Amino acid sequence: MTAATKKIWTWIKEEIFRKDSYYRLKVIHIHTPSLREVPEDIPNLANHFLIKYCQFMQTELKQFTPGALQSLLGYPWPGNARQLENEVKRLVASVRRKSITEDHLDPSIRNPGAPIQNVQPKEEPTPKSTASRSLPDAVEQLERGSSKKQCETLVETNKRRLRC
Fold first, then answer.
1. Is the dihedral of CA 75, 104, 122, 133 positive or negative?
2. Domain positions in the chain
3. 3.40.50.720, 2.40.420.20, 1.10.8.60, 2.60.120.1440: CATH of 39-110
4. Model confidence at 59: pLDDT above 90
5. Is this model's pTM higher than 0.85 or not?
6. Where are the beta strands (DSSP E) in 42-116?
7. Distance of CA 68 to CAs 141, 142, 162, Å?
8. pLDDT in tens, 86-103
C-alpha cells in the first residue's frame, strides 16, 4: 500500500518518480478525500474518536457542545484525520467535564486565522509543599501555567508516592 500527498503524474513529469515504478505500484487506486473535501464526516469522526479514547482512558463518556462541533467544522484540518484524532485524544485526557466546549479546543482550531502565540504564565506560582499535594492538585497547577521545572518536581514526587 502506498500513499502520496501530490499527484504522482506531476512527479513523473518532473522526473522525480519513475514511470515504471508507478506501474508496479498501481494495482488498485483508492482515492481517500481529505477532511476539507468531506466536512460532513467531521462530527462522526470526532464522536468516534471521543468514544474510542473515553473507553481507552476509562473516563466518563464526554460529548461535544454544538459550538465545539461548529469550531471543528470550521477548521481546515491540514493534518487530516490524524490531527483530528490527536485533538480529540488531548481533549479526553485534559477536559474534566462531561461536555467539551469550543473553549477547550486548541486555540489554532477555535480561531484558525489567528497567529500562533507562545503562551507564557504572567508570574510563576509558588509551589506548595509537594509532599502534601494530590495528583489532581498538581494537574490543576499545571493547567494554571506552572513552570516546567515545578511540573517535573510534582510529577516525580507523585511517582515516588505511588510506589510506596
1. negative
2. 1-31, 39-110, 130-163
3. 1.10.8.60
4. yes
5. no
6. 63-64, 99-100
7. 25, 23, 36
8. 999 999 999 999 999 999
